[in-house]
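Input protein
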Amino acid sequence: MKQQDKKSEHRTQSHTDVHGHNSHHIQELWKRFIVSLILTIPIVALSPMVWEWFGFTLDIPYRKVVIFALAATLYFYGGAPFLRGSIKELRHKNPGMMTLIAMAISVAFFYSTYSLFVESAKEFFWELATLIDVMLLGHYIEAKSVMGAANALEGIVQLIPKKAHKIVHEGVIDVTIQELLPKDIIIVKPGERIPCDGIVVDGESLVDESFLSGESRLIRKERDTKVYMGSANVDGMLKVEVAKEGKDSYLSQVIALVKEAQESRSKTQDLANRASKWLFFAALGASATTFLYWVQFLEVSQALLMSVTVLIIACPHALGLAVPLVVAISTTKAAKNGILIRNKEAFENLRNVDAICFDKTGTLTQGRLFVEKVVGDVLGVAAAIEKFSEHTIAKAIVEEAERNLKTIPNAQNFKIFPGVGAQGEVEGKRVYIGNEKILQKLGITLPKIFEKYKQASNTKVWVVVDGVVEGVILLSDRIRTEAKEAVARLRKLGIQTMMLTGDGQEVAKKVANVLGIDRYYAELLPDEKVRIVQELQKEGKKVAMVGDGVNDAPALLSADIGVAIGAGTDIAAQSADIILTKSSVMDVAKAIHLSRATYKKMVQNLWWASGYNILAIPLAGGILYRQGILIEPAVGAVLMSLSTVVVAVNARLLKNVEM
């Protein structure tokens, strides 16, 4: 048991380490960019090619030694992420952006070093410097925009109590939950979280299991009913027999589901990396062909210069910025509209979603109880009793009374019956309020006038005054005002909508019918939500899950895209790829629209960036050399800059897209 706990602790610690590593990586990229930018200034100022362009000379003593020292520092420090990345890509036999960048900066550095000793060769130190600067900036922008790896495991683990009150012959002692074994008897006091999965052997209480079921109402627990680790005991004392060790508890299974979903999420390469892979092979082929062909007709130094130029311009600045700029702009635009993007790849894939699963409580509904109807003149006396309670039901009744009554009477001799109700004296009358158990406790038969309300799917609070049932208060969770419109808009986009909820069949059916949901599934636990998501995926659907609670975390991570309602739990938000900070389900449709527009801009930018190569590489390779047309390094730099400007302007046009 202790060994299992250490493993769980190690997993959580590892997850924390990864999050810290990601933050450190972004800070390191920024530091390298700043240092590289500072080194670039003297490198550019000391480059003869730059002197020719701007008509000045800054020749200093030992210029070659100084510029080499600066360039070497820049190459090995600023270029380190790309050099390491290229080694990793090549080990996996999958060259991409890192390999392409490493090739370009390495050729620029070593050929420029060679040029310091050979007059016919030209320096490219300035190109080395600017290329490293732009690529570091591009990778920093991209890393910054997608930072925020999920911390769901840590959030869920915090629900597990560290101690338990175990009953022994000598009385009650506090033990760690790792020491609990099946058949042990423990006490759970009001306000404490239950430290195990077990069976109630004595006592009654209301328990909050919303982190598992998603239901906003409290669940009454009495003898022989099951309780789950991590749920909160609200008002009564419970004696619980331990049924399972901690590693086998339902909460531990939820943690395992979250971990499995995190690890199994696909890591597809983005478009820029795939373009870089083919560009890498094309550049190598074009460079080798250029040298082997022209060395037959020109001097070796000229053929080598043409070959080197091909390799250097094969890695345009624009390609490094094509995707990160679009991502940064779309992320900012989304945030201003209440959509927080935590996972870039998932946001890109949102454009292909054809099935969306919604949690009910807190997502399609507001997630708390409201008084729907008061039968009988009982609101005042009920509120007088409920003023003493902190239950969600009590708060809803008191709020309703404060809105509709001038004053709420006072109550004396208040007494609570855990899991049943409460009593008190109001204006000289004995008042009892509670669920059906209060009627059984008092031995009262429900009058026929109230029989029809007994079958209502609402949460019901019966009010008994001086031994007579005077009325009933019906409460329910209200549907969000924009939910129906959001479902209709998604249907117009050709997206199927489903509702996955822990609530009962009647409540689920009612909400689904009102909203026009295509399909609904009720009385689900977290693993069952995951199963439905996976079944939809097996049907070939791209599935998005929208939820707000701990019980939604595994499904959020198992879905192709997880979307969390911002007003929900931290665990749901940390498990999601996208967070709706305004808690509006209408923003799901807006996010899909923005995803499609973002992807379109990415493709356009990649064509612009690649178009530069399609034009520049053959010309640099001398395809029109005999016609007097050859791209010199200086001309290549101009084309590179032009391509970068076009990509930047096109990315900024994304700001004009209507949500």
Summary: The longest strand covers residues 468-479. The radius of gyration is 33 Å. The longest helix spans residues 2-45. Confidence is low (pLDDT under 50) at residues 1-21, 146-152, 264-269.
